[in-house]
Design a protein that fits this description.
The protein contains eleven helices and two strands. The chain has 286 residues and is mostly helical.
């Protein structure tokens, strides 16, 4: 029973990370209808930036995360302006090919700049907390709480701010948003910026409990796509729920066999495509 609850905590940690990554991916899809295959590699860059801010420049953990998030916000805007915005009127396949190109470019650049070695980000929160007999590291507690704070903050931003409401309006009805004068370019840039910032935050939180290496974004990317298919493409609640479903499923299957952890995502994908291909929170056709 203790192992069950221990894996439940591990599942919540995984689900928190997956949800943050999937939120950014599904926001971009909801606004631009673009499956951004490079999203996982933004996650990778975010982890490296936090790592080097701490190891090379001596920043402490939280300032390093803030710098990483701000840098990824800028990178997200640059990618949107230079790569995806020029393709907005082209067939969707062009933007998808461009996303694959960006993904390959980012991974190759990371290998050239930082090598292919596996690195570890040392967390200042290595202590262990005992909760009802369960031993949980402080870093894992920080991941769960920080992810919840970010998700609540994002929801408040989208629901309460004018800028956030323009993003929601465009996600719900693109043509209607154009008719009322919403600036699609600004919404598109802002969406990319938020998505990249969320990826950097997720990577920075997860880096102390995982390893940092150039291809780390590939598996995260695949799982994020499974999550948004599970939750419904473009659905924010679906991304959060899907992230926790996948994280908890991986945690539970680890009780049986740790080698099967990565298989769970693809098993869920097959099941959801067979039973509910539009996802749990499918958006209505626009």
């Amino acid at each position: 029973m203790e192992q069950f609850f221990q894996q439940l905590i591990n599942g919540l940690v995984l689900g928190s990370i997956y949800s943050l990554v999937a939120l950014g991916l599904t926001m971009v899809y909801g606004i631009l209808e673009l499956p951004n295959f490079a999203h996982g590699h933004l996650y990778m860059v975010g982890a490296y930036l936090t790592l080097f801010m701490m190891t090379l420049y001596g920043f402490s953990y939280w300032p390093a995360i803030v710098i990483s998030v701000l840098a990824l916000v800028v990178i997200g805007v640059i990618l949107e302006r230079l790569v995806f915005n020029p393709l907005k009127d082209a067939p969707h396949i062009n933007a998808m090919i461009a996303a694959v190109g960006v993904m390959l470019f980012m991974e190759a650049t990371a290998r050239v700049l930082w090598g292919s070695d596996f690195r570890r980000l040392e967390s200042p929160y290595e202590g262990v907390v005992n909760i009802f007999g369960l031993s949980i590291t402080e870093q894992r507690i920080i991941i769960i709480i920080s992810a919840l704070i970010l998700m609540v903050a994002l929801n408040l931003f989208l629901k309460k701010s004018v800028i956030g409401q323009t993003i929601e309006a465009m996600a719900q009805n693109r043509e209607g948003a154009f008719l009322v004068g919403i600036n699609a370019n600004k919404v598109s840039m802002l969406t990319f910026a938020i998505a990249a910032g969320l990826a950097a935050a997720a990577a920075s939180l997860a880096a102390p409990v995982n390893l940092v290496y150039p291809s780390m974004g590939s598996m995260v990317n695949l799982k994020a796509f499974v999550i948004i298919v599970l939750g419904g493409m473009g659905s924010l609640p679906g991304a959060v729920l899907g992230g926790y479903i996948l994280g908890l499923s991986e945690g539970m299957i680890s009780i049986v066999n740790t080698n099967m952890q990565d298989l769970v995502a693809f098993l869920i994908l097959v099941i959801i495509l067979a039973l509910k291909p539009a996802g749990l929170f499918a958006k209505e056709a626009r």
